[in-house]
Amino acid sequence: MACRSWRFALALFLLLSIPAVSAQQRPVFQATVAQVRVDVIVTDGDGNFIRNLSLEDFTLYEDDEAQEILSVQLVDLSEGTVLRLGQPAVPVAIAAEGVAADPAPTTEHAPTAAPLATEEVPGAATEADLAATDLGAVIYIIDGPSISEMTKNRFTLAWSSLLDQTERLSVPHAAYMISGVGRIEELSPLTMNMERMREAVRKLENEPLLDLSLQRRLVDFYNYMAAEQSLTAGIAGEDGGGASPQGNEPVSAAVAEAQAEEQRELARSLYTLEILTSFCDALAARGGRTALVWVTTGVKTTQGGPFTILASNEDRASLTLGIPDPRAMKQMEHLQHAANSSSVSIYAIDPTPINQVRGMAVDAGIQTVSEADFASGRSGSARLSSIEMDYAVTGLRDGMIDAAAETGGQAIIGATDLAEAVQTIESDTGRFYLVTYAAPLPEGDGEYHEIRVEVRRPDADVRARKGYVDLAVEEVQQRLVMAALALPGTVTGLPVHAEVFRIWGWGERKTLVLATSIEAWKVNTGFRADGTLGASLRVHVTVTDQDGELIERADDDLSARARAQDLTSEAGDQPGAGMVVYRNGWMLDPGTYDVHVALLDEIAGEIGATSLEVEIPEVEEGWRTSDLMLVTTDSSIYAYPIPNGRFVAGQKVGAYIEVKDGKQPQIGGRLLEAQRGGAEGSDQAMPRTLRVLPAQRLSTKGPATYSGSLQLPENLTPGKYTLEIVVSDQAAGEERTFLVPIEVLRPHYAADGGFIGSS
User: Fold this and answer.
1) Degrees to nearest 5, angle at CA 196 with 191 and 200
2) Contact, 328 vs 269, CB < 8 A?
3) How far apart are CA 697 and CA 667, in angstroms?
4) Rounded-to-integer distance, Cα 620 and Cα 152, Å
5) Of the candidates 685, 759, 694, which has an alpha carbon nearest to the alpha carbon of residue 726?
6) Lowest model confidence (mean pLDDT) among 204-208, 290-294, 626-630
7) Among 342, 607, 336, which residue's Cα sits nearest to residue 477?
8) CA 20, 23, 24, 27 torsion-angle sign
9) CATH superfamily to which 625-759 belongs
10) Which residue has the higher pLDDT, 503 or 309?
11) What distance in Å separates the CA atoms of residue 78 and residue 98, rounded to the nearest whole number?
12) What average pLDDT is seen over the chain?
């Protein structure tokens, strides 16, 4: 999978303008008791997990008032069990791809969404039991601009070692890298596939860093100062008295540059905190406990800092350190609230070796500084190893410590055995107590409510989220959509199928056609105000260029664009046999574009998302074709595109193509067995022909443009196939072949025999 990247800050700005869902569109959740779930990790003085607690051992407070605890469960995903205290364990169904069950959704103050699938769990009897089977996740975010190549390599070695010792993943994992200001690299979306995570490690190993780490920049800044005339006199004073900087241009320039460096570090820190906050918002669409592993050397949350200390000629005792920066503290608060509201625990890891964490003395041996100068304090190198410098540098890790402490995670700084530290995070994610309590009224007040969990054990160390923001449903939905569009790789709710096709528009510009679909039987249907049956679905799309500029955006009611027969079957008010399909199109100039799609089920509060990258090439001379597009042909109004080659048995489907500057183009092909790979020329590489599709001429569409559709065989048996389409133009001496994998979905029947459709 190619490494995806996009400009993040601008995308967030654009997404902020997405309109909120109106009050008339507020989802109708199933009638359940509003609940808040808190995952709690309890360890003894040696850091060992305590397994023998009972419900009576827990006390929970919201806003300093004791709450009635509805249930306490011991979740151990490594063993595949959920033990409701006082009752037998309930097995957790974890399939090869990490599928768990949760057929009965709950309404919570902290927003939740569907797990990876919805299958029955044998033995599950109560809603509380089912709630415990929601899977968590582990999301790695590597803060590239803050770490050095050496630090990155130390972490990747530990990460790779952990994966080598792991047989399978117990929860989905994902990995991202902040590669520069405004850009994120997706190393792997959420997956249960071990090989994908190993590939993410390899991508990180091969990712070149600019080495903008604080340590490197301090060394460069010192060398810059050392190159200035009268630097020694300006910083320390040759006579030991500390010369005044007044009228000293080199020193004034150094101080100005130090202030600029501090502002750059603050800007980087604010940007990083903003990214983490948005990740937490996106992870609200997941159930269970999510560990956000933040690999960094820290963020700036105070005024002043190490560059100011290095450039200043003031007496050390008068240096003002540790004054909080209001902007950074505000963003840190936003991060903590977002994490706690989404059941995200932040694990902040600084992979820097312990001897470099303790201070900057290692940098004092710069070649340009003599030992005599360093020992006598006659140069700026003395400040590199000063108490003030150590305080300023280690203070950059205060934000890591605070974020971890406030969200029930851990800060891992200067760990001798980094692989063991990473293993601790994995263990925490798969083993914890789940405490559920009834949420106090009123709901949706938009305020932050503090949570405190106590355990009646004298030696117990308790880690849990410290609160949540009680958002109204409309606000929850808006944030979910924003997060899903910004970070589609973190959302695995509704199964969204999407594909883009390039066909010819007016003149020489190409039209980008987006097709999005979801199986009708996976849609929550309900009655509209006028009494007609519909699906409460909204689709949100953004099209951005490689600079993050918004080119197109769409926010539509998907049910209004779906055909009635796709939503209703002969059996009555049940989902139909077809696909709920959305299509849109835009004429675009040549370039590369990112298309992000989010699909929101407003009844269940579930969301799914995906992203696509498409290149519109420069206009070519001579004979050329559009992309091959599968379309439905059983509608008298629209020919709906079919994304990813998936359609239900019984649908009439054709393969649509356009030819530019053709002479006598025609389209033909074959239906083959599913392609299984293998070496070229082998039996596996040449699947057996099932049906020949006779060629037919294309019709004239416009000036020098031809188009047409080749009908696929009707009533195909459910299964997977390969479609070979050949577009030939003997008069022009041109030919092009397409190989398209298709999947015909199998219908099934309801308990009463009514046809409702299924995969």
Assistant:
1) 110
2) yes
3) 6
4) 44
5) 694
6) 204-208
7) 607
8) positive
9) Immunoglobulins (2.60.40.10)
10) 503
11) 12
12) 74
At 101 the pLDDT is 32
Least Cα distance to 233 among 221, 242, 246 occurs for 242
pLDDT of residue 386: 73
In this structure, the dihedral spanned by the alpha carbons of residues 208, 211, 212 and 215, taken in order and rounded to 10 degrees, is: 160
Residue 483 — φ and ψ, nearest 5°?
Answer: -70, -40
Q: Strands (DSSP E) along 299-422, which ranges?
A: 344-350, 410-413
What is the edge-to-edge ordering of all strands in the sheet holding 137-143?
A: 4-7, 183-191, 173-180, 137-143, 290-295, 344-350, 410-413
pLDDT of 699 over the 60 cut: yes
CB-based contact 667:725 (threshold 8 Å):
yes
- List the structure tokens of 178: 């902040």
Tokens of 494: 């509704």
- The contacts of residue 35 (CB under 8 Å, 6+ apart) are 70, 106, 107, 108, 109, 131, 436, 437, 438, 439
Torsion, Cα of 211, 215, 219, 225 (10° steps): 110
How many Å apart are CA 156 and CA 254, to the nearest integer? 36
> What local confidence, expressed as pLDDT, does residue 382 receive?
62
pLDDT 10s digits, 182-228: 678 889 988 888 999 999 999 999 887 766 677 777 777 777 776 65
Cα–Cα distance measured from residue 155 to residue 293, given in angstroms and rounded to the nearest whole number: 12
Q: Does residue 576 or residue 505 have the better pLDDT?
A: 505
| Interval 60-83: pLDDT, tens | 999 999 999 998 988 888 777 778
Token representation of residue 45? 């003085």
**How large is the C-alpha radius of gyration of the chain?**
30
- Tens of pLDDT, residue by residue over 428-442, are 888 899 899 988 877
More confident residue, 575 or 746: 746
Pair of tokens at residue 553: 């955006």
Q: How far apart are CA 684 and CA 79, in angstroms?
A: 39
Residues 6+ apart with CB under 8 A from 686: none
Q: Vertex 321, ends 316 and 324: CA angle to 5°? A: 170
Distance CA 360, CA 473 (A): 49
Question: What is the location of CATH 2.60.40.10 in the chain?
Answer: 625-759
Residues 6+ apart with CB under 8 A from 578: 520, 563, 565, 566, 647, 648, 651, 757
725 backbone dihedrals φ, ψ, rounded to 5° = -115, 130
**Under a CB-based contact definition with an 8 Å cutoff, are residues 351 and 295 in contact?**
yes
Could you read off the pLDDT of 87-136 as tens digits, one per residue? 666 665 544 443 333 322 233 333 332 222 222 222 222 333 333 335 67
- Specify whether the backbone of 507 is left (phi greater than 0), alpha (psi in -120 to 50) or beta: left
Whole-number Å distance between alpha carbons of 291 and 343: 9
